[in-house]
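Example 3.2
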Amino acid sequence: MDRNRKTITASFLYRILLMILVCHLPQTLQAVNKVIILGIDGCKPDALLTADAPNLKTLAAEWTVCWHALSRPPTKSGPCWSSIFTGVWNDKHGVTDNNFRNSRYGLYPHVFTRLKEYDPDLRTASLVFWQGINDGLTRSADLEMNGSDEELKDTAIGLIREGTFDVIFVQFGSIDNAGHASGFDTGNADYLKAVEKVDGLAGELIASVQERRSAFDENWLILALSDHGGRDFHHGGSTIEEMNVFIIAAGANVPQKNILPRRWSVRDLEAPGRGLALSGSGGFVTIQADPSFPFQDDGDFTVEFCIRTSGWSGNPHWVGTLAHGDSKSRGFCIMTYESGTWQASLSDSAKRVNISGPVIADNEWHHLSARFNRRGNLTLFQDGMRIGSVPIGSIGTIRSSRDLGIGRFDSDFFPVSPWATISEMRLWDKALGDTVIHDWIFRPVDESHPEWLHLAGYWKMDDTGGTRATDHSPYGRYGTLQDTLSEWVSPSGQVRVVDIDSSDVLKTVDIAATLLDFLNVPILPEWGLDGKIIPHKTDTHAAYRPASRSETLLLHPNYPNPFSAGGGPASGNHPATAVPYSIGKCTDVTVSIWNVLGQRILDTKNPAETAGSHVFVWDGKDREGRKVSPGIYILRVDAGGESKSVKMKLLH
């Protein structure tokens, strides 16, 4: 009797447990999240809207779309795709050209790397038309492929049907090719034909995703976007035609929403009223070398000027002391670079740092700024926008006996013909803050400028004749025009610039944050992502919201640690160490380094530093540029009333 009672009781309990398991089974088995990213390279939003492109336009009509999304200059493929897949802008990931030089993917990795770090079993594929993406940017992908648009489409369909890949990226390149060949113009039949062809390929991929989703109860997110626009036959600049892109997000839980430009911030400014039109036959201005120039004592300095150019031959130096073709030369220069772009360089004769900017050879006025924070970064700005930065803490003295040149050509190295009009050339003896640079573009400066007392040279180029370029700073360092063919001119017209940071629209850096959030990867504040999360879940507030960010000061361990002093960033022997930190709001930041005796050996001040992530690079030298002894050092960051420190070990 007792045995039967026990058997019945055990059987009954087993059936109860089985019923509980079955009742909860549907809730524990959730649809697998998968993502496909359709990169429509070089497709302008107005071209997609004009063309016969039913697939992408239907996707946009039924889900979330922003036709006024923005990409940050330089609008070249290398920096644009880097921003898309790292989730941060150029000033953080470091890439400003298609050579991927100065990349900082160790600090700001490809989103595939973050996925692998979170879940090594997640499988990713990068299928690209332009091989540079996989060679220079892609990290941690399980499958990489380069091929034609048709080959990429066929491979992607195979991966979708196979069902073992979690994220598939496909970059179509024929639209961009058509734009370069015949013009990025909605009136160009060849360009529109390329758009329609790629739309057909995208339609096949969308259909494959829908079939897979229905058959296997998978939750797919489709992200379709262009990386940049185009103007005439090129892209790479800072015009709205090149910055404007589209972003489409589609999936089971994505709301139907056309995100209008709630705040597409555009400023219409007056072009400089006076300028010097260089003749294109060797004309340039020289300012006699002066030991009191800020760059002569290896202090911080900023250079700004306005320029309009449609082209040149060779590599003219718009301003500087460096003979760029001479590897032993010391100094700085801002010069032209490949494909109509500009470049800033700093050299101590043993080491040289270069960073390129956007296209300027578009016959439009541009305001260029280069900020040299000698213990931090060289940062470029174009039309008030921060373009990119590169560490220069390892560069030694740049003292030079060469005259300061404006529009100089170095005939021994780079024979040139600089066709350009230059105006408002300004030299400051400090690293100007982002806000100051932004607020004073295309504006003559006077005593109301917040940094007026730091003005070390000011050549407005407002002379009306003769060979003298008047210096309007208190120092009176007049320049001398070296030819008689260049002209003092009176330009006119308006300049239109876009303020990307204050524009309330989707941006290309939103892709990485959205991808991570959709795959349930926690976004850490110390990652410093610039992007926001596009709404894609029914269980969250359907709002375009920031990725996880700190409202306070965050300081992260330096890398590498330990490190060695004295070499350059490319020497391979850990010659410097990088210390990432982030701030939650715009504030003054001071970075100082102390030895174990409590003595401060180095400090640098960055006024009005913008909110977000930053990197300080230390090469093991004190404020006098001398190598310090091996040992333990403390780096401290003071910002917004907070102070945090990190311990570093210098080997030798």
